[in-house]
Each structure stands twice: as structure tokens, then as C-alpha cells.
Amino acid sequence: MKKPRVLRSNGPESLELPRKGIHDQLEREIGPLVQSGQKQQIINRVQKIIAQEYFSGPLPHPRHLEHYETILPGASERILTMAEKEQIHSAAMDKKIVDAQIEDQKRGMNYGPFSLMVIVGIAAIFGYLGQNITAGLFLSTAVLGSIPVFVNGRSNTRD
Fold first, then answer.
1. Residue 152: pLDDT band by 50, 70, 90 thresholds?
2. pLDDT at residue 134 above 80?
3. Are 43 and 23 in contact (CB under 8 A)?
């Protein structure tokens, strides 16, 4: 059995492999193995796979970056500067979000005990006026509302 040939793209000058050369080589390799009706479909699919290139990241592939530079001198520097500015902006936005969440928690920690004292005070007033059921309702609301705070602590219950 023959060892399969590897098709490669070398350097920025050959960003795309020549389709005709790939087609001819696939024709030679696949031709005797596949029925003639399916041969063309298989060759077309393999050509699509070979032509694809995957690269993940905030910047273009170094080869593509070099190609941009040959097309437009200074383009790679502009792309890198743009990526740096985006990173700085993203970090600043993350900091704003965290600061806002901390401020929200502080506000809740300040208003929570005050609200609890107001409800308990209203319950005491109703109890003093002889409205024991209404006083009990206010007091039970205050107690049942504050128990989860003591049990759960500072965990975020919104998630």
C-alpha cells in the first residue's frame, strides 16, 4: 500500500494551494479506489477540507498578519494596536462591572438592617395598640425574610 502524500502550504506567498494541482493529485490517489459516479463528489469534498484553515485568537494568524503587512505597510502594527486597545477597554469594563456589583452589595447591606428595624418597629407599634395578629404578621415577615440572609450568608441568590 502506498504511503499517502501530504499537501502543504509553505509561507505567506502560497496562502491558497493551487486547486488544479490538488485536483490532479486526488484524482490519481482516489481514482482507482472509488466508482466513477462518486469520485468527483469525493474529490470536491476533500478539496474543501484541504482548503480550510482554522486559527483561533484575538489576532490574525502570523502568516496572515505578514500578508497584510506586504499588502499595506503598517497594517500589522495597526492591527496589534487595535487589539491592545480592545484588551484595555475590556479590562476597564470588567472593573466597572465588579465595582458596580460591590456598590450594589454595600447598598443592600446598609438598607437591609434598616428595613428590618422599620418592620420590627411597625410590628411593635401594632402590638402596643392591641393589634396582635397584624403585629405577628409584620414580625413573622421580618423574621422569615432575614433568616435566609443569616443561613446563606453572602452567597449570591440571583444566580
1. low
2. yes
3. yes
| Rounded average pLDDT over 44-66 | 77
Q: Which residue has the cell 452589595?
A: 105
Domain ranges of the chain: 1-53
CA atoms of 120 and 157, how far apart (whole Å): 24
57: left (phi over 0), alpha (psi -120 to 50) or beta: left
Note the pLDDT tens digit of each residue in 83-105.
999 999 999 999 999 999 998 88
- Is the pTM above the cut of 0.70? no
Burial category of 138 from C-beta neighbours within 10 Å (exposed 0-12, middle 13-18, buried 19 and up): buried
Q: Give the three cell numbers for residue 44.
A: 470536491
Q: Give me the helix-helix angle, 132-152 and 75-128, nearest 10°.
A: 150
